Amino acid sequence: MTNAIILGGSRGIGKAISDALKKIEINVFTASKNDIDTSDLKSVKEFIKNHNQTDILILNTGGPAPKQFFSITEEDWKLYHNQLFLGFCTILQNIKINDGGYIFLISSNVIKEPNPKLIISSAYRAAFSEVFKILSKDYAQKNISCINIAPGPINTDRTRELIKNVKEYEKTLPMKRLGEPEEIGNFVKSIIENKIKYLTGVTINFDGANSNYIF
Amino acid sequence: MTNAIILGGSRGIGKAISDALKKIEINVFTASKNDIDTSDLKSVKEFIKNHNQTDILILNTGGPAPKQFFSITEEDWKLYHNQLFLGFCTILQNIKINDGGYIFLISSNVIKEPNPKLIISSAYRAAFSEVFKILSKDYAQKNISCINIAPGPINTDRTRELIKNVKEYEKTLPMKRLGEPEEIGNFVKSIIENKIKYLTGVTINFDGANSNYIF
Amino acid sequence: MTNAIILGGSRGIGKAISDALKKIEINVFTASKNDIDTSDLKSVKEFIKNHNQTDILILNTGGPAPKQFFSITEEDWKLYHNQLFLGFCTILQNIKINDGGYIFLISSNVIKEPNPKLIISSAYRAAFSEVFKILSKDYAQKNISCINIAPGPINTDRTRELIKNVKEYEKTLPMKRLGEPEEIGNFVKSIIENKIKYLTGVTINFDGANSNYIF
Amino acid sequence: MTNAIILGGSRGIGKAISDALKKIEINVFTASKNDIDTSDLKSVKEFIKNHNQTDILILNTGGPAPKQFFSITEEDWKLYHNQLFLGFCTILQNIKINDGGYIFLISSNVIKEPNPKLIISSAYRAAFSEVFKILSKDYAQKNISCINIAPGPINTDRTRELIKNVKEYEKTLPMKRLGEPEEIGNFVKSIIENKIKYLTGVTINFDGANSNYIF
């Protein structure tokens, strides 16, 4: 039986991945913030005591509320350094991924085209993407695939908090709509289901043609 | 019934995509070099007379033999300008993609990390990737997804021509093996099968963690 | 005495580089379109007969008028393939750059963030940037530096043709102004003047913080 | 009189920039680790009390000793989070840059092509590069230029610590040598000296054609 741990699985993209993986022969542990709060290293350490290995790991967590650079406090930086970076590092240092497994990172398209309102998220998600890229080469030797999905505007509670008038916003998007969490959920499922392994060490924009950078 | 046209479908990655799509409810036209030779604009124009619309289009073609910059002739440049760039532009100008369709471009990871032996391929595949990126925003308005797959070392005849000692080469790769064409075939199939549409305007390295660039 | 050849030197950025280099101990040949028309390979071949070596080479040429993808003709593609790509390749295949020299390519920031109105320019300038990157490693062995400058909106005739209301446009830019050709001219001059050689194999956005991509 | 503050100015690249700027009409404050230790936020806060504004700021600091991912401790992460990221953020939040000024960040080419031995540096320098990119658009409105220089192998004590056999290593480099700190020093000087302002929001590889990524 294949086991999966999904962080931030109680809503949004995490929940959609959880729902999708439950449709195939996978034993899914859907972690909510009660199970593990990546902004709190104690909580992370407690979690990894009870979950020290898995076949599939989904690294996923929400981001901070929008804040301009000059109003970000030292406490803000440190909190989100834990939540978006150090918690994930600690997890990868301690949870063994079984050979032939998968690690999916749900980051954000702000890592490529940083957003002034999401400066904390742009910074720390990029930092962890560097770590994840480096580790993908090591994990490859154990046939473990590392896939960094960088979503653009997805139809989640989070997006509705960030965007005031979603209807108006959607008109400005190339696809004239937000992405659906289920599209990402099904994408993750289909890679696992089809045993696609060579797709690794990669960052995949999932943003409905919204980004402008060539790659 | 959904229709697909697959260029360069008689072998390698093209054939794998063709085989994969035949497993789902798709009416696949697998074009060989006899049907359309993208290096010959007359052949392209003849082809588009008989194939002026489709739901799914796979833009795929082989590359030139390795050649150092100073030995490339004007004829070489012009031939591969047709094959890797202008033929594809002509196709997109003339074949209507039906609303809700898909266009997959099979390019190469040399577009991001150019290869001195594959200088022609690096140049013209990058050029067409620029066109494809721009068009993805227009196609998005018709719910057509544009996905640029940039393969690394895949187990094809082409790779075996380029690499002398494949066994030795494989030892240098992070995954210790070439990618299988079927992995790309199944990847394409699963996107279509799962109706994943928001994955568009994107270039996806498919290279077994072989590239070094962060994104 | 150090010799320089500057293509497209009669106006805009080319002229600014020419003016700047004349201020230091350099023997500048400022080529106008009458001397060499890179869209015409015969003209290129004639030019290289008389200019078969130099210390400093500035690859610079104007781009096409804006045109939407579906209205670009085969003749357009071929003309600008010559002008923006093949002419430059032919030049590098035939003009010897003396050891310790410099090659500057004036491309455009559309190579990183392609522009639908400048689709031809985005494609072929990217293609040549691939060639230039590859060659930079060879040239490095002869202590020749290859620097790709990718300008954003610069105060040239060209920009005033592309942008209807320059005053309004400037208000949308981070610096609230176009860049001045002299800034690029002085930049090129100062690199040569200070014998900075390790800056090579690099693409440098010169766009007043206008681009959004992280790198 | 123009004032400059140079962090990490007692050796290597910092010292070379300091030496270069002293040759022009600039009042240079060369900060050593005794003046400000960016890994210690108390030290940073003390420093900014006495240096609350400048015209030119050079953000420069050494990186950690090489360490594999699985041996990095929580203390390591937190120390270098301060040194490479949070110290710099605190400085930019508190030191006013005068209108028309310059901020140079000396990062590393590992931000684009991350290095497994320099994983901490790859991560946090990338994170700060995101912040710096975002801020460049704000600073542009005050005619302040933000230039991120990403050096490759430069002839510093640091490089000699990282590389065992420098002579052998140099043979593997395109230019067959390390870069000289003076090349970066003179580069910075010449931008300031020539009042080049439109070069901003940019990351400049300074690596002797060593990197492989196209841009």
Low-pLDDT stretches of chain A are none
Work out the oligomeric state of the chains in this entry: homotetramer
Number of strands of chain A: 6
User: Over all CA atoms, what is the radius of gyration of chain A?
Assistant: 17 Å
Widest sheet: strand ordering of chain A: 2-1-3-4-5-6
**What is the beta-strand fraction of chain A?**
15-25%
Helix amount of chain A: 40-55%
**Shape category of chain A:** globular
Q: Count the helices of chain A. How many? A: 7
**For the report, how would you describe the main beta sheet of chain A?**
6 strands, parallel
Annotation keywords:
215 residues, alpha/beta, globular, homotetramer, six-stranded parallel β-sheet
